[in-house]
Write a structure and sequence with these properties.
The structure holds two protein chains of two kinds. Chain A is of the alpha/beta class. Chain A contains 18 helices and eleven strands. In chain A, α17 packs antiparallel against α18.
Chain lengths: 436, 303
């Protein structure tokens, strides 16, 4: 083969994972092909060198290469899950775990990790991380990843948090209550008729329920009981949930929010509205701040401020929804467990947060990582103190599905909040019974 | 006995004139990839299987629960509107474009290949991409593409996706945009196969353009139209990839069609058996419609 052909074919072979065995990172492998020890790791595409975000891909390429250099005897075979298939894949992973065919380590969504723990699919990881590191995790993290036996069954390595974004020129002070929010949204619309006062997720997707659950939780509401049975339509919980539905309905009916909120099922709609200067406030995630920073002119960015979510009453406790991904181990091989824990620690904890900008689950990293030194991260850090994860019970996805339908029909005026809530509760209970 | 029959008898099952050998690979593929999965779906529909539990029992309760769920009938109604409107519009628009392209071809007008390629581009695009593109076009906000255009000509914004009726119409519109190309291809092929002599004879007999269209074009196209209807029906019933990014089935359940409901039942409710029941219902609807179309074709003597 001539030199020119070699120059062309070499990179092509490397890119397709067929490169020479001494390549440290290939498409489906970390470490040399002929390494003496191996483990299988399943990762979401975003958290690999194949991420569609160039800076993430570049960052993980470096981290993977460094890891391979530091552990020359190991080869990690990668199974990479496309971003569009993560929901289905979690169900499939649970099935594989039950059949004993799961990979040694895998990304497990924080909102289903409790199911994996309940089914005995995951291995305890306490001995592979320092006590300081584990004790430092936010309480909402420990609530989910620590089993009834007090052992930690997954390492929750990155999280996010819901907050209120507002334009200071239209809404100078952060609203503390729902009433203040509606009043401020209407006042903003009066100041500038082209803007929508307040946008929130109201379309048919998980974000609609997840974001607005904060309003339910802040009143003291609980979606399920200790056994995982839906109770959001019982006793005080029903009152709390109806309060949320009525609040969202009032947002639309009063003109504080446009009807189009019933179609919003993507956080990028808020970013687009912010760029087009057509929104005064929106309930979004911390992950939108880097987008706004990249796309807004500096003077426009300064006009945006972030605060904690308002509550129904001033005295209600603050709450906000937190999500993110964990690393869980399915193997009982101690060498593979140790190596997977090292991979999690060296690639994803701290360093990985620096690459992605996703919030650390241990507040100490806010002090040490350069990416989180802007003042806005103090607000996110503060919000995480009030973080609450979705209940990791099997019926949660169906509860969410039913509440998405309920919120949609309330916002479009098809149902009253009471009718919508009753239907959602009946369907959720039926699903729960079917799962028993 | 002819020589061929002798060979057939001597070589038995594997003789070169026996169909068994050359049909075997096809039978194997059909059994493995079509019949077995279909059988599994049917089997799961008769259980209470869940993605959460390894064990399950055979029962008819999943069928009775699914069929007694009032939500199912709302979903079936939405599916019926979606399918019927899509079929009618795709057939009509596909025919109009096919006639235009056919005429352009016969007159060798410039741009006819470009026109065909342009229409086909909608068909080759993945459904997910189409859903995302239409979600941008039909964004309810004033900066949504469709509303921007309406605003430019002095018309007000339309709530394309935020009210139940317009959301369903929007989903149909996006599906018709995608499916018209396929319809056009089939009908264009059909038009090309109609002999010019028929039109020439009609012209000699004094038939006008409309008469030629209704008394020559349509009858000659009938077999193609019927095959087209069957294929469109099946593909529209299975449309899921486009609706998920466009509306997710919302607002509420306004655009939740049967196949999307099946997905939700399996992946939100983890009910494998419930999803299998819905899949069986879909299969039965497809079969019933196909048989009805087939009967129609036979009765008209075109099959």
């Amino acid at each position: 083969m001539g030199l020119s052909a070699g120059v062309l074919v070499g990179p092509a072979l490397t890119m397709t994972g067929c490169g020479p065995s001494n390549q440290l990172v290939a498409l489906d492998r970390i470490g040399k092909e002929d390494a003496s020890q191996g483990a299988e790791v399943q990762l979401n595409n975003d958290y690999t060198h194949q991420s569609s975000t160039p800076s993430w891909a570049e960052g993980f390429q470096k981290l993977f290469t460094n890891f391979a250099k530091d552990h020359p005897d190991w080869k990690l075979s990668l199974k990479i899950i496309p971003a569009s298939q993560t929901t289905q894949e979690q169900a499939r992973l649970l099935e594989e775990a039950r059949a004993g065919r799961a990979p040694d380590w895998a990304n497990v969504d924080s909102f289903v990790v409790a199911q994996f723990i309940d089914q005995g699919a995951l291995q305890p990881l306490d001995q592979y991380f320092s006590k300081e590191e584990l004790d430092g995790l936010y309480p909402f993290v420990r609530e989910i990843v620590v089993g009834d036996d007090g052992k930690m069954y997954a390492y929750w390595r990155a999280t996010d948090v819901r907050v209120l974004y507002r334009r200071k020129d239209l809404v100078p002070d952060a609203p503390r209550t729902w009433d203040e929010l509606i009043k401020a949204a209407k006042a903003a619309k009066q100041k500038d008729s082209k803007v929508d006062g307040y946008l929130f997720n109201g379309g048919r997707w998980e974000g609609t329920v997840f974001d607005n659950l904060a309003h339910f939780w802040s009143q003291g509401g609980e979606l399920v009981d200790d056994k995982g049975k839906p109770i959001f339509n019982e006793g005080e919980n029903r009152t709390y949930m109806l309060n949320v539905m009525n609040f969202l309905k009032e947002c639309v009916d009063s003109g504080a929010s446009p009807k189009l909120v019933a179609t919003i099922k993507d956080y990028t709609d808020f970013d687009t509205a912010a760029q087009a200067k057509t929104v005064a406030m929106f309930q979004g995630g911390d992950f939108e701040y880097p987008v706004l920073k990249d796309t807004l002119a500096p003077e426009d960015l300064k006009n945006w401020e972030i605060s904690l979510l308002p509550t129904m009453n001033p005295s209600d406790s603050k709450k906000t929804g937190t999500g993110g991904w964990t690393m869980g181990a399915f193997t009982d091989n101690s060498q593979k467990l140790k190596m997977g824990a090292a991979f999690t620690d060296e690639v994803y904890v701290g360093e990985g947060n620096e690459v992605t900008g996703q919030l650390p689950t241990n507040p100490q990293y806010f002090d040490t990582l350069s990416r989180f030194q802007e003042p806005v991260y103090d607000t996110f850090r503060e919000a995480l103190k009030y973080g609450k994860a979705r209940p990791g019970v099997p019926v949660y996805p169906e509860i969410s599905n039913q509440l998405q339908i309920a919120i949609g029909t309330v916002l479009t005026g098809e149902s009253t909040p009471e009718e919508a809530l009753n239907k959602a509760a009946d369907a959720s209970l039926a699903a729960y019974k079917q799962q028993q | 006995m002819t020589p061929a029959k002798k060979a057939f008898t001597r070589r038995g099952l594997v003789g070169e004139n026996r169909p068994t050998l050359w049909l075997a690979p096809l039978l194997a593929v059909v059994t493995l990839f079509y019949l077995y999965p279909a059988f599994e779906v049917l089997r799961y529909s008769l259980t209470n299987a869940s993605l959460l539990k390894p064990d399950y029992e055979y029962t008819l309760s999943t069928f009775t629960q699914t069929l007694s769920d009032p939500v199912l009938y709302g979903v079936l109604k939405t599916t019926a509107i979606f399918v019927v409107a899509s079929i009618v519009l795709q057939l009509i628009l596909g025919l109009v474009i096919a006639v235009a392209v056919n005429r352009a071809s016969k007159r060798r007008l410039p741009g006819r290949v470009f026109m065909r390629s342009l229409v086909l581009s909608a068909w080759v695009m993945p459904g997910v991409v189409i859903g995302i593109v239409w979600a941008i076009v039909l964004n309810d906000a004033d900066y949504g593409l469709a509303n921007l255009l309406l605003g430019a000509v002095g018309l007000g914004s339309v709530p394309w996706l935020s009210t139940p009726s317009t959301a369903l119409a929007s989903v149909i519109l996006a599906n018709v945009w995608r499916g018209t190309a396929f319809s056009m291809i089939l009908q264009y092929a059909g038009l090309q196969s109609i002999p010019d002599e028929l039109y020439e004879a009609a012209e000699v007999d004094g038939a006008g353009k409309l008469q030629s269209f209704f008394y020559i074009t349509i009858p000659q196209l009938r077999p193609i139209l019927m095959i087209n209807i069957i294929l469109i029906t099946i593909s529209t019933l299975n449309t899921f990839d486009m609706i998920l990014p466009l509306t997710g089935g919302g607002p509420g359940q306004a655009t939740e069609v049967l196949v999307l409901r099946t997905y939700n039942v399996i992946f939100q409710n983890f009910s494998l058996s419930g999803g299998a029941v819905l899949a069986v219902i879909m299969l039965l609807i497809s079969l019933a419609l196909t048989l009805a179309y087939r009967r129609l074709l036979r009765s008209e003597g075109t099959l």
